[in-house]
From TrEMBL:
Annotated active site: 135 (nucleophile), 289, 318
Catalytic activity, EC: 2.3.1.31
Protein name: Homoserine O-acetyltransferase
AB hydrolase-1 domain boundaries: 40-322
Provenance organism: Mucilaginibacter agri
Catalytic reaction list: L-homoserine + acetyl-CoA = O-acetyl-L-homoserine + CoA
GO biological process, alphabetically ordered: homoserine metabolic process; methionine biosynthetic process
Amino acid sequence: MNTEVYQHPEEFVLESGKKITGLEIGYHTYGRLNKHRDNVVWVCHALTANSDVFDWWKGYFGEGSFFNPDEHFIVCANILGSPYGTTNPLSTNPTTGAPYYLSFPQFTVRDIVKAHQVLAASLGIDDIHILIGGSLGGQQAMEWSIDQPERIKNLILIATNAKHSPWGIAFNESQRLAITSDRTFYANTPQGGAKGLKAARSFALLSYRNYKTYAITQQEENADLTDNFKASSYQNYQGEKLVKRFNAYSYWYLTKVMDSHDTGRGRKGVEKALSTIKAKTLVIGIRSDVLFPLEEQQYLFQHIPKAAFAELDSFYGHDGFLIETEALTNITTSFFKTDVKGKIIELQQSA
């Protein structure tokens, strides 16, 4: 399925007050809006994903999956700043006729959500039956549910947080240091910062997985080996893979976006902001996640009024939310069979 592109006819005003002219938003839709207009599932994607959720969340979304086009009208929009169809640092600046590169205005999670809201209006979508996202996607879904609480009926937040942690910001800054140490990043060319991006991806993988993941998947069988280890080649391979499909400028800006995430900003604090969420909410944490530790999801569960909590047991760490689709399906099935009147302490992975 090809990416569709919405062209916004008005200036898009960012949280900072800066403006983007000619905003374009790439998106995918699957299925059809039913006559009651109450079958919308909106997916907010994470850092380097795209709007083709049937491609990167197979087993959870797709034909025959829990979220399928026969029952649901599924929408996933490419986020602002990402290079898969939405305006980003490599897009042409209408003022100069050249790509933005580092002149692209900085933006926040709230700006990404505002772009989603613009797209939803263009698609004639009023209420959203289920809003779902993991990691940066969860940050977006949370912001939307706080900004428009009456509109979101059910909310699924996976491996995410109410405010990005100093730990997460430190990981992101380390990646940006890697990118900016590549002098070509300042050359303003489409491939600028490519070597730095490769190194940044290597840093990121250490936060997406963990000690046990590498011990199992990258263990050497040859005890005589002194160089060229599996773990080394894996880091190089994953770095090169991202360089081929992404760019350093989008990555640099989007890590800044994650750092900006604070649901309490301008809302009298995080707890006050979370208390305004009216959606029936499922919070899922991953036991082995070192980037978004379990206590961050437990905090969400404790402060969102109609919340249920489930713990996902996965040795894949943070990336478990993309891989453990059978467990996610079981948890989600259990959640929608439950009438959340107060708080539910735990949902099981198996139905």
